[in-house]
Every structure is written in structure tokens, then in C-alpha cells.
Amino acid sequence: MAMSGTDSPKNLIIGLLACLTLFTALLLINEQLQTNQAPKGIVSFQMAGTLDHAREIVTSWNSEAMFWARTSLWLDFLFIPVYVLTLLLLTRHLSRDRPGVRERTVSRWVRGLFTGAGTADVAENILLLNNLEPPSDSISLAATICALTKFTGLMLGLAGLVILRAARRSPLSQS
After folding, report:
1. Burial bucket for residue 99 (CB in 10 Å: 0-12, 13-18, 19+)
2. pTM for the complete prediction?
3. Are 46 and 147 in contact (CB under 8 A)?
4. pLDDT tens per residue across span 92-146
């Protein structure tokens, strides 16, 4: 699974730029979805959790906003593999000079957390697309659980990267 030292940073930079571009597009789309019932746009819908809250959000969106909600969810399907692969490349990049057993174990856990977060994000998007018309209590709750799983996996994975880099203050010397 080793990558050459020259293409890893290049691929990482490309991934970071693609993430930034897609994230910016999602933020711009999300502005179209912000209402009194959904002050955070699609994120409010992700966290609705109940039929009543999901119904309030969906009814607050006009037909144009519903178009943007669907567009946001479909664009997120493109964003998911980009951010997961970029985070995996970042994990590999940050652990390349960490040969210890503990560091390799942390790196494996971090990769698993990022992959799990992406999987939860895919499930969440499928549920949210199915919850647009008509909303359902069980789908709202399941989508919220998937969203919380995704955010938890991403936060723990990022914390793992900090731990991985803090494991040794400087790379091992070449003997």
C-alpha cells in the first residue's frame, strides 16, 4: 500500500482542492435552503429526528428549495468519496514517518473511522432523499443517527490524526 513520496503530496493537494471546491458548492446551495424552520438548511433536515420536525422543514421549502435540497444530496454523493479518499491520503501522508506499532494501530483506526463516516454519509443521503416526500418518523430518526455517526467518525478520525502526529515530536533518525 506504499505510495511513492512524489505523487502522494500531489494527490493530496488535488484531493484538498477538490474537497474545497465541492464543499464551497454545497455551502452555496445550502444558503437556498435556510428558512425559519431550517436555519442551518440541509443540516437542519439531517438533524430533524422526528416526523413533525422533518415535515415542518420540508413544508417550509418551496419547489425551488426542494430542487436545491435534492441537488445538495446528489452532489454530496460526489463529495463523499472525494473527502474520504482525501482524508485517507492525509492519514497516509501524516503517518509515513511513523513506523511504530502504536502509530500503525492509530493509523488503521483513523482510516476505519473515515471510511465508516463516509459509509454513514451515503446511508444518510439515501434516507434523506427518501424522506423528502413524504417525511417519515423512522426515516427521520435513522437519518439523524447516520448523521451523528458520520460527524462522530470524522471528529474522532481528526483527533486520531492529531494523536498520530503528537506520538513523536520528530521523525526517527535514518541510521
Report:
1. exposed
2. 0.87
3. yes
4. 998 887 777 888 888 999 999 999 999 999 999 999 999 998 899 999 999 999 9
Distance (Å, rounded) from C-alpha 127 to C-alpha 115?
19
Backbone angles phi, psi at 58, to 5 degrees: -65, -40
Q: What is the CA angle 80-61-76, rounded to 5?
A: 5
3-state secondary structure labels for all residues of 15-49: HHHHHHHHHHHHHHHHHCCCCCCCCCCHHHHHCCC
Cα–chain center distance at 129: 17
* C-alpha cell recorded at residue 114: 473515515
Distance CA 118, CA 147 (A): 10
Q: Are 156 and 113 in contact (CB under 8 A)?
A: yes
Domains of the chain, by residue range, sit at 8-166
The DSSP line for 94-158 is: HHTT--SHHHHHHHHHHHHHHHHHHHHHHHHHHHHHHTSSS--HHHHHHHHHHHHHHHHHHHHHH
Instruction: Provide the 3-class DSSP secondary structure of residue 14.
Output: helix
